[in-house]
Design brief:
The chain is an alpha+beta fold. The chain contains 22 helices and four strands. It has a four-stranded antiparallel beta sheet with strand order 2-1-3-4. The protein is globular, with a radius of gyration of 29 Å. Belongs to the lipase maturation factor family. Involved in the maturation of specific proteins in the endoplasmic reticulum.
């Protein structure tokens, strides 16, 4: 009897387990959906789709656009505005004369900018308007994660308009500007034609578009690696990092300590750099896992560069195409359960052949993506030839729209850091022994020995960066330096807004301004200089440019069509 009862109990338990098992989903594609609790386990997404990848790429691109437009809004007027150091109106006029005196297709092809169509008598308002609209649109995309082709074309066109008029000087144009334009152009094709949805089921992300981003990161890294191997000898003898942290354009506090790393660590850094830039990019073509490995390596590399210096938004921007190395399954940890459930549902519908019927816009978008592949392939030919050439050039575009460009950074490393320091005096005689020269300080450029290196990335002080280039050139090669001196003599508010400390604030403007040339070095931790709070020590090289006054600069300014600053009343 006992054995019969035991069998009956076991049979009832087995039947109960079978009933419970029948209520659970099964099969090879079983996916658990729900929340974050044990009763509602996380979602597991399929590999090989890019719905979340598209969302991450869009938001990352929008973030960089936002930073770039904020930089433009806060600094463009002082640099290329109506009374800027290099007014863009003068550049537009010179292009207009070059193309025959008319504003037409030739002018737009030479300098693609909507400024051609605007009122030049209000150039400051034009520059501010472009930057403000761009910041607003990019902020919308960043916050909502939604965009269409129209919005992304507007962002690309607005930023192109600013970069194009700053390209003749380094005041508003650098290698990362072209990189942002190329990244922004590729981002146009991530979006539906008109719809504003984070996950539009009728418009699946195009694998062509994803591969154009991957091709971009491959070219960026190979360009950077090859220019180093072909460039400075220190990249071949593994000594470049002995100098880089101290001599890079805008160091940060961590640069101070990394500069004092052991010699073997600096050798390891150079070897790692060569591996990351010359070997890892080829992982992109070796299957999903190796492609993800390359993406992870590139992102970690850029994070290390962000932590060790202030290279504008360049490193942040380089992370963007690296994100295309990851699919939905690998990026799902960044999203909540609701978003993942939506993606899972879309994946299941597409896998089962129940995807929504493509709209007319979706069909047009597919045709545009095929056209994108042809365009990128065609424009990549001279870029690849440049990579293979022993005369490789970096940060160059072979088409006026900057759709496919060459890249590279730090092909040569400066072994000593030189700085130009502006000084002013109220003395009537600049050569008098009793003349007191007081120094202007910039927000991030080394000047005051006790000023701690700044942390500003991804923001960018353009003038501080440009002063780094000017320091290893002459003032004849960087005439805008003399333009700054003239503005300082007049206490010009536009230029002074780019300066952190004006020693003549609230006082009479200086009678004379000069440029002094110094060698700067990091103080040694634990030294007497460091104990005094000095981050830097310096040694004077000599005069960068001699003392100048407003009267003496009149003919210099007139010969270059620069507006001459007002001479204060009572001065001869």
């Amino acid at each position: 009897m006992a054995s019969v009862g035991d069998c009956s109990v076991r049979r009832r338990r087995l039947d109960q387990r079978k009933t419970e098992a029948d209520t659970e989903p099964s099969g090879p594609n079983r996916t658990r959906t729900g929340g974050d609790s044990e009763l509602d386990p996380p979602v597991t997404l399929r590999t090989g789709t890019f719905w979340l990848t598209r969302l991450v790429l869009l938001r990352a691109t929008a973030f960089i656009y936002l930073v770039a437009f904020i930089v433009a809004f806060t600094q463009n007027k002082q640099l290329i505005g109506e009374r800027g150091l290099m007014p863009c109106r003068d550049y537009l006029n010179s292009v207009k004369r070059y193309v025959g005196g008319k504003i037409g297709a030739a002018a737009l092809a030479y300098t693609p900018s909507i400024l051609w169509l605007m009122d030049w008598s209000h150039m400051d308002s034009n520059l501010d308007g472009i930057a403000a609209v761009g910041a607003g649109l990019s902020g919308f995309v960043l916050l909502t994660g939604t965009a269409n082709m129209l919005i992304m074309v507007c962002l690309w066109g607005l930023y192109h308009s600013l970069v194009s008029v700053g390209q003749t000087t380094r005041l508003c144009s650098a290698g990362w500007e072209s990189q942002l334009l190329e990244t922004g152009f590729l981002s146009i094709f991530l979006c539906p034609l008109w719809r504003l949805e984070q996950l539009p089921p009728q418009n699946p992300p195009s694998s062509i578009n994803i591969w154009t981003f991957r091709w971009l990161i491959v070219r960026i890294m190979l360009g950077a690696g090859l220019i180093k191997i072909r460039g400075d000898q220190c990249w071949r003898d593994l000594t470049c990092m002995d100098f880089h942290y101290e001599t890079q354009p805008v160091p940060n506090p961590l640069s101070y300590y990394l500069h004092r790393s052991p010699w073997w660590f600096h050798r390891f850094e150079v070897l790692s750099n060569h591996f990351i830039e010359l070997v890892a990019p080829f992982f992109t073509f070796l299957g999903r896992r190796m492609c993800m490995l390359n993406g992870a390596v590139q992102i970690l590399f850029q994070v290390a560069l962000i932590l060790s210096g202030n290279l504008s938004f360049l490193n942040w921007l380089t992370i963007v195409p690296s994100l295309a190395c990851f699919d939905d399954a690998s990026l799902s940890f960044l999203f909540g359960s609701e978003t993942k459930r939506k993606v899972l549902q879309i994946q299941q519908e597409h896998a089962a052949g129940r995807a929504p019927k493509p709209s007319a816009g979706a069909v047009a978008r597919r045709a545009l993506n095929v056209s994108l592949a042809v365009l990128i392939g065609y424009l990549s030919v001279p870029v690849v030839m440049n990579l293979l050439s022993s005369r490789q050039v970096m940060n160059t575009s072979f088409d006026p729209l900057r759709i496919v460009n060459t890249y590279g950074a730090f092909g040569s490393i400066t072994k000593e850091r030189t700085e130009v320091v502006f000084q002013g005096t109220l003395s009537a005689d600049p050569a008098a022994p009793e003349a007191v020269w007081e120094e202007y300080q910039f927000p991030c450029k080394p000047g005051d020995l006790r000023q701690r290196p700044c942390v500003i990335t991804p923001y960018h002080y353009r003038l501080d960066w440009l002063m780094w280039f000017a320091a290893f050139q002459t003032y004849e090669q960087s005439e805008w330096v003399i333009h700054i001196a003239g503005r300082l003599l007049a206490n010009d508010s536009a230029v002074l807004s780019l300066v952190q400390h004006n020693p003549f604030q609230g006082r009479e403007p200086p009678r004379w301004v000069r440029g002094e040339h110094f060698i700067y070095r990091f103080s040694r931790p634990g030294s007497a200089s460091a104990a005094q709070g000095k981050w830097w020590v310096r040694k004077r090289i000599g005069a960068y440019f001699p003392p100048v006054d407003l009267v003496g600069l009149r003919s210099y300014f007139q010969s270059r069509n620069w507006p001459h600053p007002h001479v204060p009343t009572g001065r001869n």
